[in-house]
Amino acid sequence: MEDVMTADGFLTNKRRSPVSLGAALAIQGVVLAGLLSMAPKIVERGREAITMIDVPKIEVPPPDPIDPPKPTTEAPLSRPTTPDQIVPTPADPVIFTDPAPLTPIPPGPIVGTGTAPFVEPRLATQPKPPVFVDAGLDPRYASGLQPPYPGRLQREQVEGKATVKVLIGTDGRVKAVQLVAADDPGFFKATEEQALRRWRFKPATRDGVAVESWKQMTVHFRLES
What we know:
Blueprint: E1 2-5, E2 11-14, H1 18-49, E3 132-133, E4 136-137, H2 151-155, E5 160-168, E6 174-182, H3 185-198, E7 201-202, E8 204-206, E9 209-211, E10 213-221
Antiparallel strand pairs: 1-2, 3-8, 4-7, 5-6, 5-10, 8-9
């Protein structure tokens, strides 16, 4: 029987038919049979999923023995040494005495009693400057001093002079001639040639040693009357 609610709100008992009841029982039987047929498979699958594995026990080797620490011997503490006490000793007192009075020397000449000869002090001597001696004509060659008269100037009756500077070597010969002044170039030319060929000098010296030097010379050209 089944309770059914009516339109007026009251429950009424309704009888089920045998056909519907049989159908319901048939459906429940089919479902139950299906569940019973599936149960062994579920159990088997559950058994297959769980596998028991025996894990061997791993033995851990014991750790290496640790040597016990050696006892350390402490060094004996050295006792501080106290330095010897220095006792200052008083120094000898310094005694100042008045110097002995000097005996005054009576005025008068000093007379020596020794036998050593008296030596006068010498003043420091300064070095002497070098002695320079100028060059001079060699009298042995005096006749060769005057140069020959230039022919053109002699024909023209021209007189004059020539002043030159000559470089005299250590052998007394003329090494060079320089013009200082001349009334005519012909006078200088004749003087230059004569100086280089014929002039001879005594060379200049410095402290007795012959040295080169320059000397100025003047030559006159005069016509004989």
